[in-house]
Amino acid sequence: MKKILLVMFSLFFAAQINAQTADEILDNYFENIGGRDAMDGLSGIKMMAKVSQGGMEIPIEIVQLKDGRQYTKFQLQGIEFFQGVFDGETLWNSNFQTQKAEKADAETTENMKRNIGAFPDPFLNYTDKGYSVELLGTETVEGTETFKLKLTQKPVLVDGEEMENITFYYFDSENFVPIMVEKEMMAGPMKGNISVSRMSDYQEVEGLYFPFSLSQGVKGGGSQPLMIESISLNPEVEETMFKFPEEN
Amino acid sequence: MNLLNKILAVGILVAGADYAQAQEPIVLSGDQLFGDLKARHIGPALMSGRINDLEGHPTNNRVIYAGTAGGGVWKSSNGGATFQPIFDKHTQSIGTVTLDPKDPDNKIWVGTGETWTRNSVSVGDGLYKSVDGGVNWTKVGFEKTERISDVVINPENTDIMYVAAMGALWGDNEERGVYKSTDGGNTWEKILYVNSRTGCSDLVMDPENPEVLIASMWEFRRTGWSFESGGNNSALMKSTDGGKTWNKIHNGFPEGRLGRFAVAIAPSDPQRVYAVLETEKDEDKGLYRSDDGGASWERTNGDFGLVVRPFYFSRIVVDPKDPNVLVKGGLTGSISRDGGKTFKNLGNMHSDIHDILFDNIDSYRMHVGTDGGVYRSWDGGETMEIVQNLPLSQFYHISLDNEEPYNIYGGLQDNGSWYGPSSSPGGIEARDWNSVGAGDGFRVFRHAEKPIVYSEMQGADNIWRIDIEKNQVTTIQPLPVKGDPKLRFNWNAALAMSPNKADRVYVGSQFLHKSDDMGNTWVKISPDLTTNDPAKQNQIESGGLSMDNSGAENHCTIFAIAESSLDENIIWVGTDDGNVQVTKDGGNTWTNTVASIEGLPSNTWAYHIEASTHDAGTAYVVFDGHTSNDWTPYVYRTTDFGQSWESIATDEIYGFARNIQEDYVNKDLLYLGTEFGLYITVDGGKHWNQFNNNMPPVAVHYVDLHPRTHDLVLGTHGRGIIIIDDISPLRKIDQEVLAKDVHFFDSEPFVMYEEGGFGGNFGSETEFVGANPNRNAKITYYLKKRHVFGKMNMAVQDLNGNTLIEISPGKSKGINVVDWNFMIKQPRVAKGKTLAFGGLTSPRVPAGDYKVIMTKGKQSYEAPLALNYDPRSPLTEEDRVFKHNTTMKLYKMSEDLAYLVYQIDAINERAEQIKEENSKSRKVMDEVINELTKLKETLVITTGDNYVGSAEPQLREKLLNLYSKVASSYNMPTATEMENLQFIEETFADARESFDAIKKKQIKKMEQFIQKNELKPVEIKAFDDFK
Fold first, then answer.
1. Based on the number of CB atoms within 10 Å of its own CB, is B1 exposed (0-12), middle (13-18) or buried (19 or more)?
2. pLDDT at position B23, please?
3. Could you tell me which of B885, B897, B879 has the C-alpha nearest to residue B838?
C-alpha cells in the first residue's frame, strides 16, 4: 500500500515538474520568498557580511537601493575601502594603493545605469522592465534537480557594441528558489569564462526570504564564500555615501 | 500554501519515501553523487593537439572558433590570444563549426566527428546548435552520421541550410550524403546520396548565388588493418537549383577511379573554383583550377605539398579578398599567390596542416590548425607563432611514478613522449614538461627504482631506454633472430613493466618478449598469440589510390600485457584481433580464453587487461569494437583465470570503452575510460555513473590510480591529463552511507606540508597553466539533500571545544569536500593610515587532534580531524612548541597593540567632542590629544599610502614584520629574530609606560573635567569585546 502511495506521489510530483512554465516557477518562487507585493514594496536592502577564507576575515557592508544607488564597503585592518559605489550617475571605487576614490570607465558606468530597475529581483515584474524569461529545461546541478531559466535583461555595451545580457538561473525544483546563477563574463581578461554564484541558507527577514550564503567564482575554478550575518530592509542611508568624493 | 507548509509537506513526502524505499537500493546518477569531487586539468598545452576546423566571425575579427579533433570547441574573443572551451558537455570530436551569417554572435552550429580519418580518429554523434553564443547546446539530430564535414547556410535566407554528412569510417552507413533544411534546421531532407560507402567530405556554396552548391563525394573505408581511399563513386557534384538536381563536373578531370577532393570557391570571384584531386595515376594528381564555376578544369600543380595524404589534408582555403591567393593543407601547408600555378611552404610550425583561416579584414593575419594546435601569423603565413593555451594533447597511454610530487608519463599523437609533474610551484607550466621521445609517442614508463624512462615510437620502430640523469638514450626494441618470422608490432606497440621485478620489461609483437635486464636481452616466452590471419596482413596495399603504409594499420599483434602483481608467473595478453591469452607458469603454457566470453563478436580488439590486485584469478578485459563499426562497450570480469567471464557493462555506459582500472582498496570500485568520458561504479559493475565534474566527455584512453595519493589520473585523447585528486571517499560509498542525511567520511591524518617559493608567472598570461592539487586538510561528507533553507555552518575546534576558525561548508547533494589551510584567523591589527602587510599572515595550528563541528538547522554533527607536521621537517617537538609560542606571543602583542591604539583613538575622539561641547575644556583636552597623538605616531603609521607614498615604519609595522617572518617560516626563529623580538618587546613596554603616564596625568585631568561638568564619559570596550 505504501508503495502504491509512493508511486502516486511520484507521478503527481513528476507531472508537476513537467508541467511547469517559466511563469509558474516564478509564481512559486515569489510565493515561497514572501510574495511579489512585499518584494515590490522594498526601497532598499543593507547586508552585513563577511568573506572568510584562509584565515583572512573581511567585514563587508553592502547597500542596494531601489533607484539603483548602491555601494559595497569593506574593511582591512580597520581601514575602509569602497567598491562599486553608484549614485545613479557616477560609478567609483577606492584605489587600493592610494586609498582614494577613482571613477570607473565610461562603459562600465553605462552598463551600471542600464542595470537600474533590476532591484530587488530582476524577475519581479520582468516584462515591465523589458526583460524576458525562458525555461530551458531541467538540469542536475549541485547534485539536485533544477529548472534552468534564461533571463535576458537590457543589452550591455562591450567594446562599444551592444551585446545581449543573459543570465542563467537554476531554481531548485523542490523549493523553487535559485541555488545557482551562471553568467558569461563579457569583458576583461577573463572574457568568455563563466562566472558562477551559488546560493543557500535562505532565511526570513521581516517576512521575506534571502540567501544568507553566497559563493562566487569561475566555472571550473575556485570560489569565494560570502557569509551574510544580517540583512535590514528599507535602510536609511546618508546621501553622501554614494557621492564621488570631490576632494579627489 | 505558505513556505513553511510547503517545506513540511516536502519533508513528509521525502520521509515517507525513505520508509517505503527502505528495501530498494538507492541509485544515484553521477551528477547526484560526485558533488565536489572535481577533475583538474594539467594539460600540457605546449604541444597542444590536432585541430580539425577553424571558423571566424564574419565581421568581428576578435572572435575565432577552433573545432578540435578530440578536445571540443574553443572560442577566442580576443583575436586568438587565448581560447575558452565552450562545448564541454558534448562529444569532443569536431567536424565543423559554422556561424549563422545573419546572427553570428548567437547562432552556432557544430557538426561532430573529425573528418581527417586517421587510424586513431575519434567519432562524433550528430549536429548541435547554440542560440546563445555557445553557452548552451542542443542536439539537432544526425546521431548516426559519425562525421559531419560541413554546415552551409544561405546568407540571404538563413532558414535554408545544408549539412554534409561524411558518415562512418569503419562500416556501411546509410546516413551519408547532403541534407537540406528550409526551416532553420527543424526538419531535414536528404537531397544527395550515392551509396553506403560514399559520403560528402566537402560542401561549398557560391557566396553570390546561394542556389549554387558543389559537393565532393568520397568513397572511403577503414578497417583495423587497412585503409582504402577512392573508387568509382567518388565525384565532384554541382547543383544550381539549391540541391534539387546534381551533376558531375569532371570536364578536364582524368578517367578512372577518384579519391578524396578538396574544393573551394574564391569568395571574391565565385567563378574561380579550385579542386585538389586524388587519382589513379600520380601524374594526374594535384590542383585543378576552373574559371567558369566548375564547367571546365585545368591542372595547374602536382607538387608534393598538394598531393600528400589526401585523407588527412584535403583542405583548400582562398583569401577572401584575392582569388589568386590560396592555401592548401598538407605536411607543411602550401601557399600560392599566383592562382595556384606555384606554391611555397608556410612558415615553420608543427607539421600536418588541416585548416587555415584568413582574417576578413587583414588577409595577412592568418590562423592555422595543425596536429599541434593553432598557430597564428601576422605576415601572410611566413612566420608562425603557437597559441599557448590550448591543452588539447592526445594521449594514447599514461603511467605514474612514485616521486614526490609524482610525475605523469605518456605518449601523444604526433607529439612524442613526455613526462611532467602532478604539481609545481605556481601551477604546472609548459616548462615543467620533459620530452622523452619523438614521432607518435605511445607507452611510457618510469623504472620503479632507477632514473630510467622507457618510451617508444610508432610500431616499435624505436623503443628507448633513457637515463634521465645522464641524459643518455639507448634503443632496446626486440630484433628478429634466426628462425623468426617478420615481427609484427602494433602502431601503438605493447610495452609493459613487471609489478614484481623492477628490471623486467615486456614487449608484444605477435609473440610476447620478456627481458629481465632492462631490454638488453630478450626472450620470447610465447608462441604467436594472435590469430595470424594472413588476410589482415597486407598493409603494403593499404591506402587505396594513395599508398599509405605508415605502419598504422599493422594488425594481428599483441596489444595488452598484464603481469599479475600477486604472482609473477601469471601473465595476461590481449591481441588486436580478439584473443585473450593467459599463462600461469611464466609463459610455458598459454590458454586462449576468449571463447568463453559470451556476447562478444569474434575478433573484437582486446584493448586493455587489468590483472586484479585483490585476487590472482581475477582480471578485467575491455574490448573496443569501434574499428568494426561497433560502439558497444564490452567490459568483462573473470574470477577463475578466464574459464568463465561475466559482462559488467550496463546500458548506463554510452559508447565504446577502452580502459579499466580496479581500485586498490575496494574491489567493487572500478573506473572505466570510454570514448565519451569516465564512468565509475561503486558496486562492482551493477551500475555505472558518468563523472562530469569539470570533466568533458572526452575519449579516455588510459586510467591509472596513484597508490599513495589515491589520485585517479586520466590520459585523454584530446584534453591532456586530467586528475581527480584523492578518490578515497568513493571507497566508502555504500547503501548505509547513501541512506544517511549526513555522513562524514573518515580521513587519514593530513600532512601540513611546509613548502613555498617563487612560482613562475612570468609570461604565462596567455599560456595554459595546469591546476595544482589542493594540499589543505579536506573535510569530506555526504549530504542526502542539497541544503537550501536555514543556517548551515562549520567550524574547526580544539578538543576542548574552543573554536579556532569558521569555514564555509559545501551544500551540494552528494559528496562535499571542504578544505582548510590549517590556519586560524589573522591577528587583530592596530588601525593606522595604511595597511600593515605583515598582519595579513595567519598562523598555522600545531599538529594534533581537532574536531569539525557542522551545524545544519538544529542538527549538529562532529567529525575528528588529525594533523601531522611535514615529515621532512628537521624541527623537534620542543622546537615546534618554542616556534609556536613565539608566533603566538607576537600574535598576542599585535592584538594588545591594536587595543592600545583603539583606546587612544577612543579617548582622542571623545576629547575632540568635549572641546565642541564645552569651550572651557580646550586646554585639558588639547593636552590629552597632543600627548596621545605623539604616542600614537610611534605606534602606527599615520600618514602616506599603500605604495611608494608609504611612511616610515613604526612599532606596529616592525612587530608585524617579525610576526609574519616567524609565523610563515618553516624553521626555528633565528637568534637575530629573537633579539629583534626583545627589542620590540622593550619598545612596546616603553609605549605602555608612556600611555600609563599620560593616563595618570593628562587623562586623569580629563576624567576630572568630565566628572565635574557631568559630561558623557569616554566609552571603551573591554579587550575581549574589542577582539
1. exposed
2. 59
3. B897
- For chain B, which residues score pLDDT lower than 70? 1-23, 759-761
Name residue, grid cell 583575436.
Answer: B79
Grid cell for residue B467: 637515463
> Could you say which of A56, A143, A163 has the minimum Cβ distance to residue B35?
A143
Domain span including residue B949: 877-1026
Q: What is the mean pLDDT of residues A233-245?
A: 95
- Whether residue A180 is predicted with pLDDT greater than 60 in this model: the reply is yes
Interface test with B, best of A2, A33, A200 (most B CBs within 10 A): A200
Domains of chain B: total:
1
User: Among candidates B773, B641, B770, which has minimal Cα distance to B706?
Assistant: B773
Q: Does A79 contact B132 at a Cβ distance shorter than 8 Å?
A: no
Residues of A in contact with B833 (CB under 8 A): 79
Let me know if residue B997 belongs to a domain: yes
- B32/A140 Cβ within 8 A: yes
Cell of B107: 547562432
Neighbouring residues of B442: CB distance < 8 A, sequence distance ≥ 6: B396, B397, B411, B417, B456, B457, B458, B491, B492, B493, B495
Considering only CB atoms, A202 lies closest to which of B789, B813, B946, namely B789
- Name the residue in chain A with its Cα closest to that of B837: A77
From A44's Cα to the closest Cα of chain B, the distance in A is 23
3-state SS assignment for residue B311: helix
What class, spelled out in words, does domain A2-241 have in CATH? mainly beta
What is the mean predicted confidence (pLDDT) over A112-116? Answer: 95
Q: Do A202 and B33 touch (CB under 8 A)?
A: no
Q: For residue B700, give Cα distances in angstroms to B394, B395, B410, B655.
A: 10, 9, 13, 12
pLDDT in tens, B377-427: 999 999 999 999 999 999 999 999 999 999 999 999 989 999 999 999 889
ipTM: 0.89
- Three-state SS for B460? helix
pLDDT digits (tens, 9 = 90+) for B987-1016: 999 999 999 999 999 999 999 999 999 999
Minimal Cβ distance to A220: which of B86, B106, B694 = B694
* Residue, of A66 and B949, whose pLDDT is higher: A66
